[in-house]
Design brief:
Strand content: 15-25%
CATH architecture: 3-Layer(aba) Sandwich
Shape: globular
CATH superfamily: P-loop containing nucleotide triphosphate hydrolases
Number of helices: 3
CATH topology: Rossmann fold
Radius of gyration: 13 Å
């Protein structure tokens, strides 16, 4: 059985922290939607990754992983 958890909530509500801790405790890979949605820039959250590339990046991140927790 695969474990796939989604932790959702508004910015600053602790979803990343909770998902990271759950991932560590349960041995699940932690994924964060921000990593797939935003380009890492000097000023965060200002440049979006193109939609087509987001899908490619997500698929690559979970390709060989059955168990994960996603925050965002």
């Amino acid at each position: 059985m695969a474990y796939r958890l989604h932790i959702v909530g508004p910015a600053g509500s602790g979803t990343t922290t909770l998902a990271s801790k759950l991932g560590q405790r349960l041995g699940l890979k932690h994924l964060d939607t921000d990593d797939f949605y935003w380009v890492k820039t000097k000023t965060p959250l200002t440049e979006k990754i193109p939609e087509e590339q987001r899908a490619v990046n997500i698929e690559a991140a979970i390709r060989d992983v059955d168990d994960w927790v996603l925050s965002g």
